[in-house]
UniProtKB/TrEMBL annotation:
One of its GO terms (molecular function) is magnesium ion transmembrane transporter activity. Keywords: CBS domain. This is CBS domain-containing protein. GO terms for cellular component: membrane. PANTHER family: MAGNESIUM TRANSPORTER MGTE. It comes from Ornithinimicrobium avium. The keyword Nucleotidyltransferase does not apply. Residues 295-363, 364-423 form the CBS domain. It holds the Pfam family CBS.
């Protein structure tokens, strides 16, 4: 009887279930050790990285996996919910082995190849071992990052080779592409991709950032801890870093720029489009713990004669953040910040209750007072709580709308600095 064999690219994203049939999470990587006294039998699989609800990634030892079959992974009922942290001597198959440059046998010599997939076999003793590598012959040449991953074309013969015949598996080269890795993660949202990138080494994070298109990288940077995104931004060529800042939400770009030296800030701002740079310059003058420092300069703004149907069409756009979409601000012209005088705001629920042809000026909420840009964080937090809203307008001394504060930005400032990383305060061990 043949022993089970699973390819990691197929395993990635597979649902993980407990013995009762309840879904625990999804496989996001495989952890192996490439060296050791028993490596003669092939690199040993020591566990799976599983994404559980809440986007937390946890480690499931392979000894707790009872079955990998028919598109699902079955585990024992006990899962340690502590966030996964890679240890010395451990290697992530998707994160680090995919796209690695190696040498494989060919005729009487060897030829360069790139790993695109890895097979793992279960031995009779129950251990799982890496057994085969699916590689593409020829050196890897990535297209420029700005062209985006989907335009990449790969050439070269593909072969399945025995892991023992491969040279270079244990060492990452000076540069490594990220095509196969990102293809394995193509179903992930930016928040989940940021979680995966955070678990990688600094070198691998930079390589992945180089492979992402500008919009995806901007979305990912908005979700990463401050140290990670600052590390990635400073690694990028200066012109691309400026392009990324242009794509980011102005408040997030401002937070990132504020951590850089003044001369670097100015260099990047000079390379940006004037309008995008102007928005960030306006935000940089405010303390980060004030309404002005928290606000975005791109809320939804319409005139009083605009119809409810027009407002609903605007907030329905896919690129509009849910918190931004919750309130429509009605102003005198111009309708870009800083606007004409703020007349009022309309909550999306009110828009849904009124006739589509009605003008926005007829359904304004007169009870929402705007924030002063110098209002401290505590005052902003209390105002959001008092109004039971997820966004509030910010106006200057002349009553012009200059931005809006959303609850997600407030939470970013009242939670601990390492809240994206420190998730061990939630239950560490759970019966699932």
């Amino acid at each position: 009887m043949s022993l089970p064999r699973v390819f990691v690219a197929r395993l990635n994203g597979m649902s993980v279930f407990d013995p009762m049939g309840d879904e625990v999470g999804r496989v996001r990587d495989v952890v192996v050790t490439l060296a050791g006294r028993d490596a003669v039998h092939g690199p040993r699989v020591i566990g799976l990285v599983v994404e559980v609800p809440g986007r937390r990634r946890v480690f499931v030892p392979i000894t707790r996996v009872t079955s990998i079959d028919t598109g699902q992974v079955i585990t024992t009922g006990l899962v340690n919910m502590r966030r996964f942290q890679q240890r010395a001597g451990e290697t992530l198959v998707v994160g680090e082995l995919f796209d690695r440059q190696v040498e494989v046998p060919e005729d009487d010599g060897r030829v360069s190849a790139v790993i695109e997939d890895v097979a793992m076999d279960q031995h009779r003793g129950g251990d799982w071992r890496l057994s085969r590598l699916f590689v593409r012959k020829g050196k890897d040449h990535a297209l420029p990052a700005s062209r985006g991953l989907r335009l990449r074309r790969r050439r070269g013969e593909t072969v399945l080779v025995d892991v023992h015949g491969v040279h270079g598996l244990h060492q990452a080269g000076p540069a490594q592409a990220a095509t196969a890795l990102l293809e394995a993660y193509e179903d992930l949202k930016p928040q989940d991709l940021a979680e995966a990138i955070h678990d990688l080494s600094p070198k691998r994070r930079s390589e992945v950032a180089d492979a992402l298109d500008d919009e995806t990288l901007a979305d990912v940077l908005e979700e990463l801890p401050d140290d990670d995104r600052l590390e990635i931004l400073t690694h990028l060529p200066t012109e691309r870093a400026a392009d990324i800042l242009e794509v980011m939400q102005p408040d997030d770009a401002t937070d990132l720029l504020s951590d850089l030296p003044a001369d670097t800030q100015e260099e990047l701002l000079q390379l940006m489009e004037p309008q995008e740079a102007a928005d960030i310059r306006r935000l940089l003058v405010y303390d980060e713990n004030t309404a002005g420092g928290l606000m975005t300069t791109e809320p939804i703004i319409l005139g009083p004669d605009a119809s409810i149907a027009e407002a609903l069409a605007t907030v329905r756009r896919e690129e509009v953040h849910p918190a931004i979409a919750s309130l429509v601000y009605v102003t005198r012209p111009p309708h870009e910040t800083p606007t004409g005088r703020l007349l009022g705001s309309v909550h999306i629920q009110r828009l849904l209750r009124e006739a589509p042809h009605q003008p926005l000026g007829s359904v304004l909420d007169p009870d929402v007072d705007p924030l002063d840009p110098q209002a401290p964080l505590g005052e902003v937090t209390r105002a959001l709580a008092n109004y039971n809203l997820v966004a509030l307008p910010v106006t200057d001394a002349e009553g012009r709308l200059i931005g809006a504060v959303t609850v997600d930005d407030v939470l970013d400032h009242i939670l601990p600095d390492d809240w994206r990383e420190d998730r061990d305060n939630v239950t560490e061990v759970a019966d699932v």
